[in-house]
Write a structure and sequence with these properties.
- Chain A: This is Large ribosomal subunit protein mL37.
- The complex is a heterodimer.
- By secondary structure, chain A is of the alpha+beta class.
- Chain A has one domain (about 5-310).
- Chain A has seven helices and 13 strands.
- In chain A, the strands form four sheets. A seven-stranded mixed sheet of chain A has the order 1-9-8-7-6-5-2, with helices on both faces. Chain A has a two-stranded antiparallel sheet with strand order 3-4.
- The two termini of chain A are about 40 Å apart.
- Chain B is an alpha+beta fold.
- Helix content of chain B is about 10%, strand content about 20%.
- Chain B is built from three helices and 13 strands, in the order αββββββββββββαβα.
- In chain B, the strands form three sheets. In chain B, strands 7-12-8-9-10-11-13 form a seven-stranded mixed sheet, with no helix packed on it. A four-stranded antiparallel sheet of chain B has the order 5-4-3-6, with no helix packed on it. A two-stranded antiparallel sheet of chain B has the order 1-2.
- In chain B, a hairpin with a 5-residue loop joins strand 10 (about 210-215) and strand 11.
- Chain B starts with a helix and ends with a helix.
- The chains are: A alpha+beta, B alpha+beta.
- The interface of A and B includes residues 146, 147, 151, 152 and 194 of A.
C-alpha cells in the first residue's frame, strides 16, 4: 500500500540515511582487501548458480538463489581467513525471531517469524554513527500518515505471551560464544513473481527484522525497560532475489518507542544494487545468427565489494 | 464377549457417521485458496468460483472476491431474465456503501480518510476508489474529480448553518446547502446508499422541510427522506459513460449481454414516447407526522 520503508520507519522510530555509512564505504574502497582474481571468482560463482548446476536448460530461482548465496559467503570466508581468529562468525538457518515492543498509544507490536539466515559474531559491531549524529536525530520529526494509522495493514494477533527471545536456542544469551547478531540475509527465492516481495517491501521487511534482532539483543544486554542506549546495537542486513541486492545497516540507539520524540534510531540503506544485468542461459538466436551468446552481461563488481565490506565490517 | 460386541457396534456407528458427514460436505469449489505460502499469505484471490455461496461472505475485505455468474437463471435453474450470459470473468470488490461506518472502537464523530487509488470496477459503470483511514481500507464509489491523495471528510453532525461541502465528502442532508449535487443517497438513515450510484449521475437537494429533505433523483422523481440520511457531494465518476460507442457486437458479448431475438414484432401501445406528469413524490419518512396533525 505505502512505500513500506516509510511505515517501517515510523513503527521503529528510525531516521533514514541514503547510501552506506562511511565506515563501510572505507572498507569497500580499501585495496588491501582485494583478493587477486576476485572478480573472476564472483563471475564463476554466478555462472555456477545460474548455468551449470542443473539438468534443465535454466535453473529456477528457488534453486539458484541459495546456491549463489552460498558461493558468495564462501568467497567472503576465504577473504576472512587473513584476519585473526577471535573475530569468528557463525551462521544459523531457519531462524526464528520474536521481539515485542510497545508503541505510542499503547499498542503492542511484535516482530515474529522465520528469518532467512542470521550470522552471529563473537564481538559486536561498533556503533557506526558518531555521538553528534545521534543527538542530531532528536530534531528529526517522524512523518505522519494522517489520517491513516501507521499500524494499518498489520495482522492483528492474539498475544498470549510476550516473547523476547530468538527461538529456542536463545543464542543471544551471554554464555554462548557467538552472541552478537551481525548480519541477516534474506533470500527471495520463490519462483512466481507474486510470491516474492518487491524491492520496497523487501527493504521494509529487512528493516523490521533487523530492528527485531537488535531489540532482542538490547533487551538481553540492558534489561526490559525502555531507555536510550549508551552503546548502540548495530545489525546489518542484506536482501536479495538472486540478482538485485539491498544492503542495510541499522543502529539501535534507543528502545524508548512509546514517545515519538527524542533520539531516533538510524538506518543506512543502499538499495537496488544489481550484481549483473542479465544472465543468458540459452543463446538468443535471431534469423539463425547468434546475437547474444551464453554468459553474464552487465556484471558490476561493486555490488560484491559492498557485500564483502558488510561481511568484514566489525573486524577491520 | 458383550463388551467386544459393543465396541464393534460402536466402531460401526462411528464409521457410519463419518460416511454421512462425507456426503454432506460440499465438494470444494475449484480454484479455492491455494496452499499458503510459507508466510501464511495467499496473494491473490481465485479468478472465479463455482460456489453458490460466494455472496455470503461476512467479513469485509479489500481484496477482490471471485464471483459466480448466474446467466439470467434463477434458483429453479430456468431463465428468468433474457439476454444475460457469457462475458469476461469478473471479480467482485466489496464496496462499502455506508459512508459513516465507524471502525470498531472508534467514537461516532467526524473523520477523514485519504484516497489511495481510483480504478475501474468491472461490476458497475462507476469507478471505485480505495480509501484508507485509521486502521482500515475500504472501497467506495468515486465521485467525479477524485484523485489519489485527496482527503475526504465524513461527518454525522447537522449544524445550524449549512456546511460548505467539498466534492467527495459525505454529510447528512440536513447539513448541506439547498441546491447541492449529491450522489449515493440512502432512503433510511444507516441503511447504506441505494440511490444515485450509476456513472455520471447526480441528484439535487431541492428543499428542506421540518425534519426532512427533498431530493430530485436523476429520473426527475422527487424523494422525501429524513434529513439525517447521509449522501456524498458531487457527481458520480466516469461521467462520459453514456457517450461511449460500443462499436461492435463482440463488445456487448464481452459485457455479458446476449443478443436480442431477431423476430420482427408489430409494436403495440407499450411502445413509443410517452409524455405524462411526474409521479407523486415518494416519501420514505414514517407516519408519526399524521398522528401529530390529528
Amino acid at each position: 500500500l505505502f512505500p513500506g520503508v516509510r511505515q517501517a520507519q515510523w513503527l521503529t522510530k528510525t531516521k533514514l540515511v541514503e547510501g552506506l555509512p562511511p565506515a563501510v564505504l572505507n572498507i569497500v574502497n580499501d585495496p588491501a582487501h582485494h583478493l587477486e582474481g576476485l572478480e573472476e571468482r564472483v563471475k564463476h560463482a554466478i555462472s555456477h548458480a545460474r548455468f551449470w548446476d542443473t539438468m534443465e536448460p535454466a535453473p529456477r530461482r528457488e534453486h539458484y538463489c541459495p546456491v549463489l548465496f552460498e558461493h558468495l559467503i564462501h568467497l567472503c570466508r576465504l577473504m576472512f581467513e587473513r584476519y585473526p581468529s577471535p573475530t569468528k562468525r557463525m551462521s544459523a538457518r531457519n531462524y526464528k525471531i520474536a521481539a515485542t515492543w510497545e508503541e505510542v498509544k499503547s499498542i503492542l507490536l511484535q516482530v515474529r517469524g522465520l528469518n532467512g539466515v542470521l550470522m552471529n559474531s563473537v564481538a559486536p559491531i561498533p556503533p557506526v554513527a558518531s555521538k553528534e549524529e545521534i543527538v542530531a536525530t532528536e530534531e528529526h520529526v517522524l512523518e505522519t500518515f494522517y489520517p491513516i494509522c501507521p499500524t494499518i495493514d498489520l495482522q492483528e494477533v492474539n498475544v498470549y505471551r510476550e516473547l523476547n527471545d530468538t527461538g529456542k536456542s536463545s543464542c543471544f544469551r551471554d554464555g554462548y560464544p557467538y552472541s552478537h547478531p551481525h548480519t541477516l540475509f534474506f533470500l527471495e527465492s520463490a519462483n512466481i513473481r507474486p510470491n516474492r516481495f518487491r524491492p520496497e517491501q523487501l527493504r521494509a521487511k529487512m528493516l523490521m527484522f533487523a530492528f527485531g534482532n537488535a531489540l532482542a539483543k538490547a533487551k538481553v544486554l540492558y534489561g526490559n525497560d525502555p531507555k536510550v542506549l549508551e552503546h548502540p546495537v548495530v545489525v546489518q542486513s542484506v536482501g536479495t532475489d538472486g540478482q538485485l541486492f539491498q544492503f542495510m545497516v541499522f543502529q539501535l540507539n534507543t528502545t524508548d518507542l512509546v514517545s515519538n520524540d527524542g533520539i531516533k534510531n538510524l538506518v543506512w540503506i543502499d538499495s537496488d544494487q544489481n550484481l549483473y544485468e542479465k544472465a543468458q542461459c540459452v543463446p538468443e538466436i535471431k534469423k539463425r545468427v547468434v546475437t547474444k551468446p551464453v554468459g553474464i552481461y552487465g556484471f558490476q563488481p561493486d555490488t560484491f565489494k559492498k557485500f564483502l565490506a558488510l561481511y568484514l565490517h566489525g573486524t577491520v | 464377549m458383550a463388551a467386544g460386541a459393543m465396541s464393534v457396534s460402536a466402531g460401526l456407528a462411528v464409521s457410519g457417521l463419518r460416511r454421512a458427514f462425507a456426503a454432506l460436505r460440499l465438494p470444494p469449489a475449484q480454484g479455492l485458496v491455494p496452499i499458503p505460502a510459507p508466510r501464511g499469505l495467499s496473494l491473490s484471490a481465485p479468478l472465479g468460483t463455482t460456489d453458490p455461496a460466494w455472496k455470503c461472505r461476512v467479513k469485509y475485505t479489500v481484496r477482490p472476491v471471485g464471483m459466480k455468474k448466474t446467466g439470467g437463471r434463477d434458483h429453479t435453474g430456468r431463465i428468468r431474465v433474457r439476454g444475460i450470459g457469457g462475458g469476461h470473468k469478473r471479480r467482485y470488490r466489496m464496496i462499502d456503501f455506508q459512508r459513516l461506518r465507524y471502525e470498531e472502537g472508534a467514537p461516532p464523530e467526524p473523520f477523514t480518510e485519504k484516497v489511495i487509488n481510483v480504478r475501474y470496477d468491472p461490476c458497475r459503470s462507476a469507478d471505485i476508489a480505495l480509501v484508507a483511514g485509521g486502521n482500515r481500507k475500504r472501497w467506495i464509489i468515486a465521485t467525479e474529480n477524485m484523485q489519489p491523495g485527496d482527503m475526504i471528510k465524513n461527518s454525522p453532525h447537522i449544524g445550524r448553518m449549512a456546511v460548505l461541502a467539498n466534492e467527495g465528502d459525505a454529510y447528512p442532508l440536513g447539513a448541506l446547502p439547498v441546491g447541492t449535487l449529491i450522489c449515493n443517497l440512502e432512503s433510511h438513515p444507516g441503511k447504506g446508499a441505494q440511490y444515485i450510484r450509476a456513472a455520471g449521475t447526480c441528484g439535487v437537494l431541492l428543499r428542506k422541510v421540518n425534519g426532512t429533505a427533498i431530493v430530485q433523483l436523476p429520473s426527475k422523481r422527487h424523494m422525501q427522506v429524513l434529513e439525517t440520511c447521509v449522501a456524498t457531494v458531487g457527481r458520480v465518476s466516469n461521467v462520459d459513460h453514456n457517450k461511449r460507442v460500443i462499436g461492435k457486437a463482440g463488445r456487448n458479448r464481452w459485457l455479458g449481454k446476449r443478443p436480442h431475438t431477431g423476430l420482427w414484432h408489430r409494436k403495440g401501445g407499450w411502445a413509443g414516447r410517452k409524455i405524462k406528469p411526474l409521479p407523486p413524490m415518494k416519501s420514505y419518512v414514517n407516519l408519526p407526522r399524521i398522528a401529530a396533525q390529528e
